[in-house]
Amino acid sequence: MKTLIRGGRVIDPANGIDDVLDVLLESGEVAALAKSIGAPDAEVIDASGQVVAPGFVDLHVHLRTPGQEHKETIATGTRAAVAGGFTTICCMPNTDPPIHDRSVAELVLSQARAAGFAKVIPLAAVSPSLKHETLTEMADLKAAGCAAVSDDGKAIQSSSFLRRILEYASMLDLPVVLHCEDYGLSEGGAMNEGYQSTVLGLKGMPREAEEVGIMRAILLAKCTGAHVHFCHVSTAYGVEMIRRAKAEGVRVTAEATPHHFSLTDEDVGRQNYDTNTKMVPPLRTADDVAALVEGLKEGTIDGIATDHAPHATEDKEVEYDQAAFGIVGLETALGVTLKYLVEPGHVSLSDAVAMLTCRPAAALKLSAGTLTPESAADVVVFNPTQKWTVDPGKFHSRGRNTPYARCKLLGVVSHTLVDGRTVHTHPAT
């Protein structure tokens, strides 16, 4: 099977490419990139006026399978992924049961293959049932296809247990993906602690709850030599600590979410206590947003991840302090990135593509995010200037919990290909 993507602006930051080219895909691989390719027997996709890029890579997705399929299934989650341009996603282990042994990891992988949309790479739990009592069989989980281990949203409170995790994982060269939160500081909070929480009458979650966890993890990564990857960094001082750690040679990487670099705690009141503004870490301040943008620009923050967290309607349509934390993000990530990073001139389009492709892939050493010949033919074609209005009712995800409903965003994905197969086309194409 051959597919020729003709005349698009090819942006492949991994290889320093930003030029109008043809791209030939054959037998599931990238076969060639050139100014003009003749392939009379190939299916042709006319990409003129559009961007052709490696399929996006998301390091932080909740697929809710097994155990919470009423919120999301692997089929609906991966369908949402390719609609947003993501061809490789890492799924988090806080399922029921968690991804804490080979059988659960194999279930996830088999269902992803059966669905036939985005590629799914599981992240394994650090402990059985996420109880933080003993360690999982990390070597077996790595052999089963897990790319890293993670506590996910259940933050590790014991420093001694975290050190044991890092020591074991470092022997296996497995990254440890951390959600940093000191529950003693944040418990019972619903939004960022500060002026806005006081005005709105909601209990706050101080930034220090996250920063204490980041500082501790950096120190333990330094002493163990382990690779720590920080989930959804949200504070300015968190960015600064990671910057210093990298300068010192500590093995740390980090991600930022679209909602944390585009929204602030003022949006909680501005959106009239809409529970879709409730997530953890919470939305912070404008100064924190500016620091995240700078961290992404300079590479302190390695890439963009969605923290796609679908919830059932009944989890969100309650009082703000009772609502579940989290929002969906796979189908809005590109639009938010283009509107809030590229359009204002904070980063170039090529840099934005890097933040969604080769940079996150490199953070966890994934074979993805490039159009290098003979690499997997995972490709996204999108119009970077086309405007669209977010309508949650049209999401492919089962989750409708987005703070961007009715917002006008930029960037429409026209085609997504996985291993050379077209798995998504926009209705207008």
Could you please describe the fold and organization of this structure?
The protein is an alpha/beta fold. The chain has helices at about 75-85, 100-115, 140-145, 160-170, 185, 195-200, 205-225, 235-245, 265-270, 285-300, 315, 335-340, 350-355, 360-365, and strands at about 1-10, 15-25, 30-35, 45, 50-55, 55-60, 85-90, 120, 125, 150, 175-180, 190, 205, 230, 250-255, 305, 380-390, 410-420, 420-425. It has 2 domains: about 1-50 and about 380-395 and about 410-425, Roll (Urease, subunit C, domain 1), CATH 2.30.40; about 55-365, Alpha-Beta Barrel (TIM Barrel). It contains 14 helices and 19 strands. The strands form 4 sheets. Strands 1, 2, 3, 4, 5, 17, 18 and 19 form an 8-stranded mixed beta sheet that branches. It has a 6-stranded parallel beta sheet with strand order 9-10-11-14-15-16. The chain has a 3-stranded parallel beta sheet with strand order 6-7-8. Helix 1 (about 75-85) packs across helix 2 (about 100-115) and helix 4 (about 160-170) crosses helix 7. The mean pLDDT is about 95.
